[in-house]
Design brief:
By secondary structure, the chain is of the alpha+beta class. The chain is 22% helix and 21% strand. The strands form five sheets. It has a seven-stranded mixed sheet with strand order 5-6-7-8-9-10-11, with no helix packed on it. The longest helix has 14 residues. The protein is globular.
Amino acid sequence: MNFVVNERCIDCGTCWQWDPQHFAPAPNSDAAHVWRQPEGEAETTRALLALRACPVAAIQAPADQMRRTPADGFPALLTRHPAGDVYYCGWASRRSFGASSYLIVRSAGNVLIDSPRFNAPLARQIEALGGLATIVLTHRDDVADHDRWAARFGCPRWIHAADADAAPGAEHLLQGDDPMDLDAALRLIPTPGHTAGSLVALLGDQILFSGDHLWWSAAAGEATGALVASRTYCWHNWERQLASVAKLRSLDVRWLLPGHGGQRRFGPGEWAFQIDGVLRFWAPSAADADPPRPANSKAIP
């Protein structure tokens, strides 16, 4: 028996965003599939962690393979930066439609960006990395088990006031449309549109946690792609979302880490070019026709 994706799949994209070497959207289907079986220990470990990250247990593997899943696989290091080391949490939650969540490990206190599924193995790993000082919730869709994480680590939560009803116990509410610095390295920027209270978090002026505001879209297995925002999956106000996109043009983003959709590294000056591309694509003359969604956007809730 090989790795397979079963009928429980909700097509959230978690598996192929983490492990595109083996998983991909199934052609002509609202599901993922295994397009290539893993070979060797390293590839098998990656596929096993995709199985663990899946929010609905839709990936199956032989029992002898399952026993080889590393207990410390998540959180997984993505990048090191002077402002903090950034990890992908895995353990996606169905309540957030498989949204990605991230852990920033730093001397000023660790920060959880959005919420993974609560579980003891991940909690132990986060504790070993220094615990949590703060939780930032980018918008109402991706709060998942935030209350259990806050209780486990005794840490406060931030969410925008316009989405506060999704996290009624949150200790801190961001107000209005002006950015706010949590400290010298971490800025919260309101980006209303996808939801009324959407925000992004900027670490060290270069790493952007974008929630469902923006993400990178590329066809499975392709190196090319584009920065995109979704009119189809805008729950609040599309014109406000485009204005929020334009507000980010002056940033020098080098790493984009979204809640849904692809991650992306950018070279110097590439971010502004990609922002301009989003705004040109959705110029009024183009938006009237409601163009087809970009590749892979079906995974955005």
